[in-house]
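hiii, so i know i said id send this last week but things got crazy w the move. better late than never?? heres the sequnce for the chain we talked about at the cafe, plus the structure i predicted for it. fair warning i was half asleep when i ran it
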Amino acid sequence: MNPKKYRTPQILDFPARTWPNKKITAAPEWCSVDLRDGNQSLVTPLTQQQKLEFFQNLVRVGFKEIEIGFPFASDSEFNFVRTLIEKNLIPDDVTIQVLTQSREAVIRRTFESLRGAKKATVHLYNATSPLFRDVVFGKTKAETIELAVYGAEMFVQIAEEFKAAGGREEFSFEYSPECFSQTEPDFAIEVCNAVISRWEGFGTIINLPFTVESLTPNVHADMIEYVCAGLINRDKITVSLHAHNDRGTAVAATELCLLAGADRVEGTLFGNGERTGNADIITLAMNLYSQGIDPGLDFSNIVDLVELYERQTVLPVHPRHPYAGELVFTAFSGSHQDAIRKAMTKRKPNDLWEIPYLPIDPADVGRGYEPIIRVNSQSGSASAAYILETQFGINLPKQMQRDFGPIVTARSDKHAAEIPADEIHALFKKAYVVETPYKFLTRQSYVQDYDGSTITCEIEYNGKPVTINGTGRGGIHAFCNALQTAFDINIDVGNYNQHTLDTTEGAAAPAITYMEIIVDGKSYLGAGISRSTTNASLKAVISALNRSV
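okay and structure toks below
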């Protein structure tokens, strides 16, 4: 590798910048370019039916501006625009947008595709950077401006022809100095103002694209604020952004440029687009949402959008993709899991969302809470406890959490894999609900009075029934005394916890008891489950006793 073959970018000298002291307080105007910029970057472009389904989903999400194609590029592009218009598939509050180069035949064909549209934006572009002027097209600055002005004037002429012929189309115009990010800022102002001056009386968008992301986000922001200050009729025009992700900072650059004065954002779902893609509108919108700002777009069913996107584009959504990835709300690390579990337990329904490691509530994008904590060899004892509590209603005491954690970790280490929730549940039962060689049988007589408790019950030992009797301070103490007498073992009760399992059975739900017993001075843990709270406790004693054998 030889970094010296690359040019060091020049930094804009702009001490008058104000954007670092500003904050975003409202969502920008959004324009999806999935069906044009996103579609043209696919190995296999979308079919007409796929584009229609995608368009309808963009409308459902809430996009009011959608760039739907490059009508001159092919008959399929042209026909898709005609289908939407002729079949009246465009809601009244949605503006469609189409792209054109600054050539008369291309412009006329583009306008023709829009005949009968209620509201449409016609998007003109030409390259303005020195590399394109000097190397690709061999044009001077004056010739580059002339090409832009030619297209701008052609727009007005054709729009007036439509109106004279009785057309009711409501046209707005957009201009992009392609490769703005590599264009001299003063020249960008000059060419944009030349276009703006030709579009008096029409809604005007000046789109400043980072066609190739070549600068750090702060320099992009400086350029946007500098150019905005130099545009004529700034209060009458919309300044738009269109960032690509060559440096991996399209989202950051877009956010800083909104601080710098831009009004509008063009982008795609999941950042699809040429090379490394476009700015990801889902991430941008959800970033606003996570700061308490209504983004104006509804991603509450993000799983459905992932399915649509992957099925139609044949591109995967990365499992770590912000907000949408399969694993973005999942913690494997034990310390992360413990923090999440504690905060989720303490949070009340109307509290502000302040959960460690989770910037938004997964439910807001249609995700469940089950995947938040998953277990592998990196997970701590609290992770398995969280799974048992949230998915099976088993609320392990701290002592049992510490005891159970190594069992789960050993299992994960052995198989070098994540452990599913059902397997964790099975491990818990195998470890603590143990029934041999001692097995509790439900036939029992239990009497409690002021002098204490008396119990007579039948258990099974190594396959043979044994009747035992005992007295004590309570039922559990009496049961331990009975075991001690019958089997000549030194047994006592340690810690004890019990609760009803969280099921849909209401009062008929079973109870679970967690029991510590001390056998010959050593601690053993067990659990028992029964619809009888007494039986659950006695079974827990037996389970712990079996672990001592």
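btw The mean pLDDT is 91. thought thatd interest u
miss u guys!!
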